[in-house]
Amino acid sequence: MVPKKHKSKRLSLKQQHKIRKRSVEKHRKDRRDAKRNPQKKKLKKDPGIPSLLPFKDKVLQQVEEHREQIKLEKQRQKDARSQLHDTNRNLTPAPSSMAELASDAQRRSAAYEDAQQDSDSDAQEIAEGTVTGARDNSKRAYYREFQKVVQHADVILEVLDARDPLGTRAPQIERMILDAGSNKRIILVLNKIDLVPRNVVEKWLAYLRHEFPTLAFKASTQEQRRNLGHAVAGSKKATSLNTAECVGAESLIQLLKNYSRNQKIKTSISVGIIGFPNVGKSSLINSLKRSRVCGVGSTPGFTKFVQEIQLDSKLKLLDCPGIVFNSPAKGANKVDKVAAAEMMLRNCIKVELLDDPIAPVDIIVQRCNPVALHAMYNVSAFTNTREFLVQLARQRGMLKRQGIADLTGAARIVLNDWNKGKIPYYTLPPGMSQTTASGKTAAGDAAVAHGAGRAVVVNNWAKEFDIDALLGDMDTKVLADASSDNKPNRRAIVMEGHVVAQNADIAMDASSDEDLEDSSSEDDAMEEDESDSERAS
């Protein structure tokens, strides 16, 4: 019998190339994993106790005793859990009669209602404190952080939104600081002036400066992390507030340094920055520091703890979480409910947390020009808020069962657009549309009447900050360079009606029906007279 030949180990070229390709690919993946996680090591198997180890029997006995101790501890914990379960079960005996069963059900129902009320109050506290799902996010925790800033700060910067200065102002906090008799100084910073016409900014500055020193400011919107720019007065780039660079930072820093120099403070002064959520507190700090040292975001409650930033050897900034300083209680009257709905329009609470998003949309529809909403959302004419939301829901395909329009979902869309700035708006100072015979605006007269009690305070602070010389130069730098490029946005909406502010004695007058004329007539009017340019299309 012929013996079989030994099987050859020769491979075809196809197989050889396949093996080589897989080997190269494996080595490549190993090198990649080594770069991603260089500390990764394979677990080495326990070799056990060597046979030649001295006193091996004693070591084995110790290991066995340790295992027995672990086993006994587990059994002890198991028995304790079982005993606790039996004890709790014996504490609640089964009802022996229907009366006991009914009383037990009533007791459990009352306990459930109490728990629901507690959860509702917690949710209300979360909404009031602009909390968004992180640890210790209660209003009390945020207020503690706010108190730290007020206590340690020498100068308080209250940041206001230029679109709604009185709505984002906290007069009760101002009164608390002044009534305490401390030497703390309050400065109002009118942020986001690029979203408001120049003449409206000037009127707001004149109105607010009768009570406290007020500066116009625009935070930097540049995207790099370092070397954030400051617009230079007189340069070509600073001819419009539409620039991404910061405007007004130099004047604010100079104002703070004047206070430090006039008070002969040898060490650095602490500057606390307070305000409502999303008014630009962290953005202001980043603009002053020229670097992204504070996280920013459009979500209410983004800043959760006090942050200390050393600006230079003389200035130290304290960033504070945004606080909603007032909140209507449950069972409030109609005026309080309107105030609560207006609070929702200031992006102080996440839209997802709102129980009734239709109420703030109702305010938008009532006070806005319907023509602007028609063009913005491409809907036909409507007579009330419900018709507007029904058309918007059907247009976006937001339908429930049986074709019912989802009004709540449509309202959330409008509120998100409002918070993101897709619906441009601004408010006017009280009495801005009226002028006196002497040439002063009624807004200035209203400010004098309202802030008469603080006139002495402002006059005393003027010497400490060198306000008279600085504010005139600041207005020249910040506002004079904003030429005709900063005209009113023709899509911007001037809020109509009576805008309720934080307290009853502060309120903003609305634009009249004359402010909502056709766009063509407004164009001619703005070219003819400066007073007509103050009106929004």
Automatic annotation (TrEMBL):
<dbReference type="GO" id="GO:0005525">
    <property type="term" value="F:GTP binding"/>
</dbReference>
<keyword id="KW-0342">GTP-binding</keyword>
<dbReference type="InterPro" id="IPR023179">
    <property type="entry name" value="GTP-bd_ortho_bundle_sf"/>
</dbReference>
<dbReference type="InterPro" id="IPR006073">
    <property type="entry name" value="GTP-bd"/>
</dbReference>
<feature type="domain" description="CP-type G">
    <location>
        <begin position="143"/>
        <end position="326"/>
    </location>
</feature>
<dbReference type="InterPro" id="IPR030378">
    <property type="entry name" value="G_CP_dom"/>
</dbReference>
<feature type="compositionally biased region" description="Acidic residues">
    <location>
        <begin position="511"/>
        <end position="537"/>
    </location>
</feature>
<keyword id="KW-0547">Nucleotide-binding</keyword>
<dbReference type="GO" id="GO:0050793">
    <property type="term" value="P:regulation of developmental process"/>
</dbReference>
<dbReference type="GO" id="GO:0005730">
    <property type="term" value="C:nucleolus"/>
</dbReference>
<keyword id="KW-0175">Coiled coil</keyword>
<dbReference type="Pfam" id="PF08701">
    <property type="entry name" value="GN3L_Grn1"/>
</dbReference>
<feature type="region of interest" description="Disordered">
    <location>
        <begin position="504"/>
        <end position="537"/>
    </location>
</feature>
<protein>
    <submittedName>
        <fullName>Nuclear GTP-binding protein nug1</fullName>
    </submittedName>
</protein>
<feature type="compositionally biased region" description="Basic and acidic residues">
    <location>
        <begin position="55"/>
        <end position="88"/>
    </location>
</feature>
<dbReference type="InterPro" id="IPR027417">
    <property type="entry name" value="P-loop_NTPase"/>
</dbReference>
<feature type="compositionally biased region" description="Acidic residues">
    <location>
        <begin position="115"/>
        <end position="125"/>
    </location>
</feature>
<dbReference type="Pfam" id="PF01926">
    <property type="entry name" value="MMR_HSR1"/>
</dbReference>
<keyword id="KW-0539">Nucleus</keyword>
<dbReference type="InterPro" id="IPR050755">
    <property type="entry name" value="TRAFAC_YlqF/YawG_RiboMat"/>
</dbReference>
<dbReference type="GO" id="GO:0051239">
    <property type="term" value="P:regulation of multicellular organismal process"/>
</dbReference>
<dbReference type="InterPro" id="IPR014813">
    <property type="entry name" value="Gnl3_N_dom"/>
</dbReference>
<feature type="compositionally biased region" description="Basic residues">
    <location>
        <begin position="1"/>
        <end position="30"/>
    </location>
</feature>
<feature type="region of interest" description="Disordered">
    <location>
        <begin position="1"/>
        <end position="132"/>
    </location>
</feature>
